[in-house]
Amino acid sequence: MNELDLELYEAYLDNTLDSEAKKAFEARLLDDTSFKESFEAYKETSVYLSEKFSDQEDLNAFENNLKNLSEEHLPKKRPRATRLKFGSTQPQLYC
User: Fold this and answer.
1) For a designed S-S bond to 17, which of 21, 37, 70, 77 qualifies (C-beta 3.0 to 4.6 A apart)?
2) Is the model's pLDDT at 55 over the cut of 90?
3) Whole-angstrom Cα distance, residue 89 to residue 23?
4) Average pLDDT for residues 21-34, to the nearest whole number?
5) Is the backbone of residue 30 left (phi > 0), alpha (psi -120 to 50) or beta?
């Protein structure tokens, strides 16, 4: 796999090749097994990475939405006062 092939793969997947270049690319896929295998590997990796980053973006958006909703609608927690009670044996914590 070389850099020019990577650019071709990306252009093909983005559908930015003109009709002649697209026909040549598809013909090469049929004729060149190594080219086809490396394209399939590139395509699978590209799909995986785009799904992974898409899912992470969705997760971040969800977390931000929850944070905003909680700030708007839930009361702020105040720290609880605690006191220690010292007895004859061990100190005890009361909340």
Assistant:
1) 21
2) no
3) 87
4) 96
5) alpha
